[in-house]
Specification:
Layout lengths: L1 E11 L11 E12 L4 E5 L6 H8 L7 E7 L5 E3 L5 H10 E4 L3 H4 L6 H6 L11 H14 L16 H13 L5 E5 L7 H18 L2 E6 L2 H7 L2 E6 L2 E7 H6 L4 H8 L30 H5 L1 E5 L2 E4 L12
Parallel strand pairs: 3-8, 3-9, 6-7, 7-8
Antiparallel strand pairs: 1-2, 1-4, 4-5, 9-10, 10-12, 11-12
Helix pairs in contact: 5-6
This protein binds adenosine-5'-triphosphate and magnesium ion (MG).
Length: 318
């Protein structure tokens, strides 16, 4: 449904006193992966590893530095991200929707919930008419566990978890095929996190959604994902079906992530922060060759491991 081929996004480094002209931030570097229809693909990795940049590329809020992204919709039409005209850009954006981390900032406090939900149509190539839009808004309120009467209230009247439900409803109003959830539960209490994750799982069934679920918390990603991709410093270092990765890890960074997570079964009862894995987390230092970064070995069906960073961590590739 979505395919990334050698996708990179480099940013010029802010001009500082010592900055070289050609200095770059390698936010995403040579990532290749495929997302199948109906699956939940989890992207996990520490802060700054390139998860949000990947998500922004997928909704074309950013242009690719290199590589290609393809999206194939339900009707079998294919869109190439490097060559989208305005019309196909709108069609991609109404089909591939992005739910942001912070509902407090992404919901305009002056709007009623009704207007928030209807603002989702901004990304749609076509307005369905007032009556139908109102019907959709009411239906979605119930689906995300809110009351229809609340359509006339404003974001400030709701809790963090409820606001995240509103953001999810807004994203679904164009009936997208793909939902990208970027740290949608990170700002919430652990007890509320579980409710929102279960809601997403339920909506996936009802709406036949394909999801890309981004989080730095492995327990959260492991709970919802069918497959998991581990990112480290802009590179996809390991990818596997979720149960497979729970059984066996090959890349040293993945092993490290799991070690930082003491009890997986006890997922709603712990707070873990992941310290820097390598000696240097400077995003402008990129010590592996592009050949390493692109080379992934398949160690078992669907389980791929990158050669990138394995040697610098003193470990041979799997
Ligand atoms: N517009 C930009 N200009 C320059 N550098 C950027 C820009 N956006 C992101 N970066 C850099 O790219 C790298 C990846 O950032 P990104 O936001 O994708 O990480 P992330 O994995 O989502 O992190 P977090 O878990 O903190 O959300 C970081 O080093 C970040 O500072
Ligand atoms: Mg992010």
């Amino acid at each position: 449904m979505i395919e990334l081929q050698n996708v990179s996004k480099h940013y010029p480094l802010e001009a500082g006193f010592f900055a070289r002209q050609d200095a770059r931030v390698y936010a995403v570097n040579g990532v290749s992966l495929r997302i199948e229809p109906g699956e939940i693909y989890g992207l996990v990795g520490e802060s700054g590893c390139g998860k949000t940049t990947t998500a922004r590329l997928l909704v074309r809020m950013e242009h690719l530095t290199a590589g290609e992204i393809r999206f194939r919709n339900r009707d079998g039409e294919e869109f190439l991200y490097s060559r989208l005209d305005r019309r196909s850009l709108r069609r991609v954006r109404s089909n591939v929707r992005y739910v942001f981390q912070d509902p407090a900032r992404s919901l305009n406090p002056r709007l009623t919930i009704r207007d928030v939900l209807l603002s989702g149509y901004r990304y749609s190539p076509r307005w369905p008419g007032t009556a139908q839009a109102e019907g959709e808004a009411r239906r979605l309120m119930q689906e995300v566990g809110l009351r229809v009467e609340d359509l006339d209230r404003r974001p400030a009247d709701f809790s963090g978890g409820q606001r995240q439900r509103i953001s999810i409803a807004r994203s679904l109003i164009t009936r997208p095929e793909v939902l990208i959830c970027d740290e949608v539960v990170s700002a919430l209490d652990v007890s509320i996190q579980g409710q929102i994750l279960n809601l997403l799982l339920q909506l996936r069934e009802e709406h036949k959604l394909t999801m890309i679920f981004i989080a730095h918390d492995l327990a959260v990603v492991g709970y919802v994902s069918d497959r998991i991709g581990v990112m480290y410093r802009g590179v996809l270092v390991e990818e596997a079906p979720a149960p497979d990765l729970l059984r066996q890890r090959h890349h040293p960074y993945t092993r490290y992530l799991f070690e930082a997570l003491p009890v997986l079964g006890d997922r709603w009862n712990r707070q873990v922060s992941v310290p820097a894995f390598a000696e240097s987390a400077d995003p402008t230092v990129f010590p592996v060759s592009s050949a390493d970064q692109l080379m992934m070995t398949e160690v078992s069906p669907g389980h791929r491991v990158s050669a990138a960073f394995t040697r610098s961590a003193g470990v041979e590739p799997a």
